[in-house]
User: What shape does this take?
Amino acid sequence: MFFTFTQAWPLWAQQLFYAIVPVVLMIAVVMTSVILFVWYERRWLGVLQHRFGPNRVGPFGLLQLIADAVKMMTKEDIMNREVHKVLFTMAPIITMSSALIAWAVIPFGENMIISNIETGIFFLFAIAGMGTFATIIAGYASANKWSTLGAMRGVGQAISYEIPLLFSVVPIFLIAGSFNLQDIVLQQQGFWNIWKQPLAFLLFYICMTAEVNRTPFDLPESESELVSGFNTEYSGFKFGGFFMGEYIASVTMCALLTLLFFGGWYLPFANIEVINALHTGTIGYLINPIVFLAKTYFFFGITVWVRATLPRVTIGMLLSFAWKGLIPLTILNIFVTGLVLYILR
Amino acid sequence: MGDFIYHLVFYLLAASMFASALAMIFVRNIVASVVCLVGAFLGVAGFFFLLNAEFIGVVQIMVYAGALSLLIVFAIMLTDPKDHETERPKLNNILAGLVVSGALFLIMVCAISTAEWKISDAAPLLERTAVYIGVQYFTDYIVPFYLAAIILSMALTGAIVLAKKDEEGDKC
Assistant: This one.
């Protein structure tokens, strides 16, 4: 329909074209929004901390990020004599690619998804978990005490927080009866999951902040104690890989928050008329991604607000909070939800 | 998904899996070989995805590529870094290894090529496979499911008992 010019091509070229175009589009959208997110975070932090933030390069400082990216790419790439060169180079690549692959299962609107697999959210968590592996590889390959300590902390934190992270979304699966993100959103028409599962939202929010290593849980790279944690030895483009990868991971988590609890691409209080008028057909293809991205931006703004407000916790507080507070609460939440669903059956 | 893409992805996955499995054996640094092992696991997961077994593919990534490899690297990092690089093996060992693995390879080729493969005549399940697995677990296979749960909680409790110090007032 849209790509009539491909009809003259051989079959294999058409198939390749239709397989590659959505992926390229998705990567373009994600990378552009990550650049915008960095700018957004710095400006918003400036507002929250009563200062300006980047405002010199371009209108409202928007071109600052281009300048930073150019600086990062042209910087000298320093590699210590003691590092394990292959692993050292691989770690940022793993971070970046695992963060990008996770977007394969995120729907931007109805049927606007690269791979609509049944176990979409599981796939996302599994791939996002590979980021932890990259952290420990980076810490090991750097041959540096700070890096190793940061990586150890990162793994301890990730192992502790992945359990409540997965458990906290189980009530959503129970309500929706599906692991597919698109099904979960479609079932939230008019009534978002946040009203049904406020506790699950709170738990998910805490765990997701810990999972993507943002303040107050940024222990793997705590500047004041561990210099810069697992990425101390990295510079130039390789550091850029970590930086982008972590941003993409936190944007992914905000997108997931939107999809699971806040109705994905539906406008607030969208009833059946609004959905038929705005969220389906050709107009839906325009409106759905915009609403979805707007909600994601909003929740990213809240994580920045948390970052500007709370100090970092210590590793002991973090681990005991996960094992003694979050995990029992998530299990209780699953149990109560199951019971209520069984009674209402 | 078109035929061409299917075959392209299959051969790419096969090649990368073969390469990373070979690299896992020949790389001298033990952590690097874990990374290659993860590559092989991911290739297996990719095959599961190609075979429409998404749930098993995801579990493969989550358990093997994610958790198990992390555990291995974590355990390796607690050992002495000097032992991480293995030395080049001696000629005698290489010869002995070649003989043993060649014999094993021949036996496996004979066994696999002469075996009779049974193909189930049940209709393939094309959608909602994960739901089907869940239903099966809680109906027909409830006993193995509970046994696995009991064994895992025994292991967990045992680990806690072993790791816990006896001293009173020892906060951890």
Q: What stands out?
A: The radius of gyration of chain B is 22 Å.
